[in-house]
Each structure stands twice: as structure tokens, then as C-alpha cells.
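A further point concerns the way the authors explain their paired sequence and structure data. The central task, working out the C-alpha cells from the amino acid sequence alone, is never made concrete. I therefore recommend that a typical entry be quoted early in the introduction. An entry of this sort, consisting of the sequence and the corresponding C-alpha cells, reads as follows:
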Amino acid sequence: MTRTLVTGASGMLGNDLCPALLKGGFQVYPTDLAPDSKSIDALDVREKEKVNDYIKKVNPSLIIHLAAETDVDKCEIDRKHASLTNTEATANIAIACKALGIPLVFISTGAVFDGKSKDIFRETDKPNPVNFYGKTKVEAEQMIEKALTNYFIFRAGWMIGGGKKDKKFVGKIVNILKDKNDISAVIDKKGTPTFTEDFSANLLRVIKTGHYGTFHMANQGVCTRFDIALKIVEYIGKKGVTVKPVTSDAFPLPAPRGDSEALENYKLKLLGLDHMPRWEDSLKKYVGKILE
């Protein structure tokens, strides 16, 4: 049984990944800065000494590092906080893994690319982030690559999950449609939705193989937020709804976004390990869960 320390266990991905790990026979030690359950230990990954003390106590044979500041605009505004949380904290974890001689699983993002050179990116494409969030993730990846040999870096697309607790795009659209028949959604930015349930299941498949490295792992297909909104309306089955396509200028934000954050699971395909479904199929299943 693999003793697995998970950081950021109370987050969107942790809520699906921890149960999947337990079901897969892993012995899980979940931690979070703000635990939402008594079964999760409090741990601030930015505090190096506390991280080291906790790791010594648990003595894991694997660390899955989910903890991060994922608010892109907050990262742009408070760069010191972003660097400390996303880059320096990851360095703390990587150094601990090196000392113990154990693998590290790290979650990165399609935001490491500028979105200008092409519509969809492979692992072989060079990162060139347009915002500070993406920069912190690139720096974290580089620290892991420098410190470790046995690591998994999984770059996700537009992460979607959380069910009824979902306060991000899908959850917001579903809630808006309860009272309104007119919504607007951005049409000039492309991405690949990444559903936490699919991501968790495929992550387990990959780490069990021991094929270390950097992988893109998103659902199949490229779309815009407008495309997602149209599908949500279809799956809800509400009549008389108007979805207005708008450019990103309609929603001015502190952090710039690349024209495309879309990912191709190129390396997973080569290894026969790409079991990520089409985004439309997973969205339909997910919307059904929210409406239950």
C-alpha cells in the first residue's frame, strides 16, 4: 500500500482525487491550508519547517502536490503571494522528495503557454506564459525537473469540478440560468476543459506505470467558454435562452489570458494512456450531477 501525502486536499481536484486514491488502494494522508473535513490535516506548504516535520512524521512513499494559488487575477495583483505559494512552496516539496528519494506528482496548467503560436499545444512546445500565474507554474516545473528524476508533471486545461459547490464557470452558468434567460460568454479564447473526476482516474493509471515525465492531461476537444455555455443550456433543457457571444474585452480582468490554452495529450497517446473522454460527454454527466 503506497503511503501518499496529498497537499491541497480540500480543493476542487482534491475532492475527487483523494477518494479515487483510497479506492485504488493508496494509504492517503490529506492536508490543506484550510481543511474542510476532520479527516484532513492542516498544513501550510509555504512553511518549510512545518512541511519537513509533517513529512518526517508521515514518512510517505509518494507526494501529490495539489496546493496552489489558482486565482489567476490574484496572482497578477499579489505577485509575492503567488511566488511564495506556487513556486517556493513547490521547491520545499521537491527538496523533501529528493531527500527521501520518493516520486513527486505536480499539477501544472495550460497557462504556461502564450496561446499565440498555435491553437493547441503539445508537451514539446516551449512554455511562454502571458500572465504571472503561468510564470510561477513554469518556475515550479523547472525546479522539479532540476531537483528530481522521478516526477510526474500533469498540465491540466480549464479545470472543472466541485459539483454543487462549484463556483467557477460551469457552476455560475447553471446558477444564472435558474433565474435568467440571457447570458454572455467569451468566444475569443480557446481551451480544453479538464474534469476533475476524469483527471483523477487517469492520473492513477499513469502513476502506476512508472512512466515519469511531463504530460498534458485534458479532456478531448477544443472549445471556447461560449461553446461550453451553449452545451450547458442544451443539457439543462431550458427553452428560450439566449447565449450572447462576446469578446474578452467585455469582462476586463487584471491578468492577461492567452488566446489559446488548449492542450493535446500527445505523450499519453503515444503510451496508450490517454483515457480522457470528450469534454461534451463529461460536461453532460457533470451538469446532471449539479442538478441532482
Notes: The first strand starts at residue 3 and ends at 7. The two ends are 35 Å apart (CA to CA).
